[in-house]
Amino acid sequence: MHYDCMIIGGGIAGLQAAIQLGRYQHNVLVIDAEEGRSTLCQSYHNVLGYPDGVSGPELRRLGRKQAERLGVHFELETAVTAKKTADGFTVWGKCGKRYEAKRLLLATGIVDRIPSFPELLPCLGISVYVCPDCDGYEVSNRKTIVIGSGNTGANMALTLYDWTKKLIYVNHEQQAVDDQLLMKLKDKEIDYLSTSIEKIVADDAEFTGVILTNGEQIKAERGFVAFAGNEVKSELAKQLGVDLHENNHILVDPRTKETSVKHVWAAGDVVAHSEQVTIAMGDGSQSAIWIHKTLLEG
Question: How far apart are CA 210 and CA 83, in angstroms?
Answer without folding.
Answer: 47
